[in-house]
Hints:
By secondary structure, the protein is α+β, with helices and mostly antiparallel strands. 29% of the residues lie in helices and 17% in strands. It is built from five helices and five strands. It has a three-stranded antiparallel beta sheet. Strands 1-2 form a two-stranded antiparallel ribbon. β3 (24-29) and β4 form a beta hairpin. The chain is globular.
Amino acid sequence: xxxxxxxxxxxxxxxxxxxxxxxxxxxxxxxxxxxxxxxxxxxxxxxxxxxxxxxxxxxxxxxxxxxxxxxxxxxxxxxxxxxxxxxxxxxxxxxxxxxxxxxxxxxxxxxxxxxxxxxxxxxxxx
Length: 126
């Protein structure tokens, strides 16, 4: 039986080698670092452990411009990447990433809800 090997990459944060399944691919879109968890976005990518420690180390060492081969070491915005890695701690967290507990304790919105879920709720309640 043929043995399949998992590709290995180097994390730009801690500089340790790890299987690509353990790393998060990061690409540059319009000057902004964007996470590519499905590894499908076009362009050169950099690999990073999805931990705050590796992200901070990569930012401190200015590893992203080098890994992505940006001319002159241009500055990049890491907002979406930071939000993805830090999760709840990052500002602008999307509702899709909210935990079940956060959804249950969410404050009600002003006015009646609209859309399919509101109609389902009316059917159940009324």
